[in-house]
């Protein structure tokens, strides 16, 4: 019984971690360098984390980004301009 409970806990934690982050790709619709926020053409709002350069991000650029959810915000951890 303890094995089943432990395996269930591990599975639930794995699913929870997956919900806290992800990958997204799209075209940048707008850039707010002051607030470090970009909005993609599908409406996805991403906050560019400290240590991730924002000066290379321009409207109309296609990007791929990885993010983590922190305090209800999608914080970019890595971003690649295509």
What do you see in this structure?
- The chain is an alpha+beta fold.
- Helix content is 22%, strand content 46%.
- It has one helix and five strands.
Which labels suit this protein?
46% strand, 82 residues, 22% helix, alpha+beta, five-stranded mixed β-barrel, OB fold (Dihydrolipoamide Acetyltransferase, E2P)
Give a nutshell description of this structure.
This protein has 82 residues and is of the alpha+beta class. Helix content is 22%, strand content 46%.
Going across the major beta sheet, what is the strand order?
A: 1-2-3-5-4
CATH class: Mainly Beta
What is the helix fraction of residues, given as a range?
10-25%
Radius of gyration equals 16 Å
What is the overall number of helices?
Answer: 1
How many domains would you count in the coordinates? 1
Uncertain stretches:
15-19
CATH topology description: OB fold (Dihydrolipoamide Acetyltransferase, E2P)
CATH homologous superfamily placement: Copper binding periplasmic protein CusF
CATH architecture: Beta Barrel
Shape: globular
Number of strands: 5
Largest sheet: 5 strands, mixed, barrel
The first-to-last residue Cα distance is 50 Å
Strand content: over 45%
Average pLDDT confidence is 84
Order of helices and strands: HEEEEE
Specify the structural class: alpha+beta
Mind sketching the topology for me?
Blueprint: H1 2-19, E1 21-32, E2 37-40, E3 45-48, E4 62-70, E5 73-81
